Design the sequence.
C-alpha cells in the first residue's frame, strides 16, 4: 500500500507537516502540524495551518488522525486548531507522560496540569496499529531525541519525525531532557531494519551544505548507505561520540520555551486567568 503524501514546509522552523492519504478513499491523516508563533510579540498566527486546511478542503479529504511524532521543542502544534476545523483524533506516544512530568516541574505547573496524557485522544505504544480509511498504520517507538518519539509506518511510508534527517544532514539532537544518543542509535537501527525501498519522510530539513533545495523524502536503502551519521554500518560508540560532542555545541531552539508549554498540552494554551488572558512562562536558568 502506497499512501499519497504531501509535505508542507515551514520556513520559520524548518518543519515539514504531512498530509497522508489513503489511495482508495478520501481518508487522510495530518502529521506534525505547525501553529506559527512570533516570540517577540507573543502572537500566534494560523497561516501555516490554514494552508493545510485549504488543501484538505480543496481535495475533499476526511481527516481521521492528527498525529504528533513527539513533543516538539521548536514549533507549536496546530493540532487543536486543525481538529476544530477538520476533525480527527490527536495521537502521540504514551511516554508523553514522562515529558509532561519533566516539564511540568520545569514550568512549575500546578496540580491542574494533568501529567497522564489525557489532553490527547490517543496514546500509542510500540506495536499499536490504526487505520486511515482502508490503510493500516503501525507504530514504532523510536526514542532518543525525546522519550516519547514515535515513527508512524503507514503502508510503504515511514514518518520518522526527529530521528533520521536527510542522509546528507544526518540525525536529530539527543540533548533535551530524557534524550539519549545510545537510545537514538538503537531506534534508528529499528527504522533501518525496514525494507530498503521503504520511503522515509523526515520531520525537519536544514538543507545540508552544498544542497540547493529543501528535501524531506528518502528511503531506508539511501539512509543505510549514505547517512552521514549512521550510514555504512557506523557503530553505536562512533555515533554516540559524534552526537554528544556535536550536541554540546548547539544552541537551544528559538521557540523551545513556548513550544514545550503548548505541546505538552496537546497544542492547547495554558488556562486563561480570571480576565481571560493567556500567559506563557519563561523559567530563568532552568533549561
Ligand atoms: Fe523535535
Sequence:
Amino acid at each position: 500500500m502506497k499512501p499519497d503524501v504531501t509535505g508542507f514546509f515551514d520556513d520559520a522552523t524548518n518543519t515539514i507537516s504531512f498530509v497522508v492519504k489513503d489511495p482508495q478513499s478520501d481518508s487522510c491523516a495530518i502529521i506534525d502540524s505547525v501553529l506559527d508563533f512570533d516570540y517577540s510579540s507573543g502572537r500566534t498566527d494560523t497561516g501555516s495551518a490554514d494552508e493545510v486546511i485549504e488543501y484538505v478542503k480543496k481535495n475533499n479529504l476526511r481527516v481521521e488522525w492528527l498525529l504528533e511524532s513527539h513533543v516538539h521543542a521548536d514549533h507549536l502544534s496546530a493540532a487543536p486548531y486543525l481538529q476544530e476545523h477538520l476533525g480527527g483524533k490527536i495521537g502521540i506516544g504514551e511516554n508523553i507522560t514522562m515529558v509532561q512530568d519533566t516539564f511540568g516541574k520545569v514550568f512549575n505547573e500546578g496540580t491542574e496540569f494533568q501529567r497522564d496524557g489525557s489532553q490527547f485522544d490517543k496514546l500509542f505504544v510500540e506495536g499499536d496499529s490504526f487505520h486511515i480509511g482502508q490503510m493500516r498504520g503501525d507504530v514504532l517507538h523510536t526514542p532518543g531525541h525525546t522519550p516519547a518519539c514515535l515513527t508512524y509506518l503507514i503502508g510503504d511510508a515511514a514518518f520518522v519525525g526527529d530521528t533520521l534527517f536527510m542522509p546528507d544532514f544526518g540525525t536529530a539532537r539527543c540533548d533535551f531532557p530524557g534524550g539519549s544518543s545510545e537510545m537514538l542509535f538503537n531506534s534508528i537501527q529499528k527504522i533501518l531494519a525496514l525494507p530498503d525501498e521503504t520511503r522515509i519522510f523526515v520531520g525537519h530539513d536544514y538543507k545540508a551544505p552544498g544542497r540547493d533545495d529543501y528535501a524531506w523524502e528518502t528511503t531506508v536503502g539511501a539512509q543505510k548507505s549514505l547517512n552521514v551519521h549512521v550510514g555504512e554500518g557506523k557503530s553505536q560508540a562512533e555515533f554516540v561520540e559524534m552526537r554528544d560532542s556535536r550536541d554540546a555545541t548547539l544552541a537551544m531552539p528559538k521557540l523551545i520555551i513556548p513550544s514545550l508549554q503548548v505541546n505538552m498540552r496537546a497544542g492547547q494554551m495554558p488556562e486563561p486567568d480570571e480576565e481571560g488572558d493567556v500567559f506563557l512562562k519563561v523559567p530563568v536558568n532552568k533549561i
The longest strand covers residues 4-10.
